[in-house]
Amino acid sequence: MVARAIDIPIDIQSYARLDDEQCAARIRAVKAALGDRLLILGHHYQREEVFRHADVSGDSLKLSRQAARSRARYIVFCGVHFMAEVADILSRPEQVVILPDLAAGCSMADMADRVKVERAWRELGAVLDVEREVTPVTYINSAADLKAFCGRHGGIVCTSSNARAILEWAWARREKVLFFPDEHLGRNTAHAMGVPLEDMVVWDFNQPRGGLSREQIRRARLILWKGFCSVHQMFRPEHIDRFLERYPEARVISHPEASFEVCRKSHYVGSTEYIIRTIAEAEPGSRWLVGTELNLVKRLAERHRHEGKAVHFMSPTICMCSTMFRIDPQHLLWALENLVHGQVVNRITVPQAEAEAARSALQRMLEL
Ligand code: 13P
Ligand code: SF4
Q: How far, in Å, CA of 49 to CA of 38, rounded?
């Protein structure tokens, strides 16, 4: 029995003094002590010092599937808040989901909230019969209450790896899609499916009726929420041009959260898992320019160096996801050692009514 009940959670302050290697040794000891009662999930954007402790790593879709399948008592999510919420929604009631640092949010997810989305739905409802004509689709990078909104209104969740199949599903049911919070993922995916740009409009959530006329709304097939990722918006088409001038034989691969112009200039566009797989399967000696988060790009460069593959980061400025970076070995160890002492810190729980509606939107996605 490793648990020893104490009254007060162990204080995070005492962990700030530990270096990463001290943390690593103690994390390994806790993992050994908790055995299969513990599952550590790690998103690809996690820093290496945390990522190496993950039992399962993956993109949002893979990690949400893993959370649904897990039997572990404790799921410690090294990722961001919306991912831990999904793990809580999909896991069983007796399972406990922990986010080592509660400040690990997602600035894109914060660009849409329930008040704004419900207002948009009402305003669209003044022009259209929304329940018959519009499917709400939320990117998994969104708060649980927006997934619940989609669950209640016949909508669905998507990730960057299944957005195409989800849009096909949505359009097979209703004529229009309201897509939030990422404008770029929606546009890039729909355009790759052959939907012309004229069929898409951008909903500016700071303007009455999204800044659109009734006519624009009536004509649109895809209504894109004006949200974006602060990391992926840093990549610019001129970065690609400059790189290809220097290395004309190189390949360019980008995440679909990058802008339309960047994705159009990229040879390949896809989720983090897709990027990893494409570079892994590429011929030795190939050269890659990669438009996604820095920690993943650095890991890929390291992993494939011995095969003679050169992997470059797209932006000249350092742009990593600062909220993913909040999870450090010190917070991870703090959360784990509290568990050993019978204390749960930073538990993520989605209220039941919301979780049920969100689960139905997530299940629709997972069944596809
Ligand atoms: P993936 O779905 O590719 O894991 O991306 C999640 C994310 O937050 C990208 O910025
Ligand atoms: Fe959110 Fe962008 Fe960070 Fe992904 S990279 S978690 S979209 S802020």
A: 19
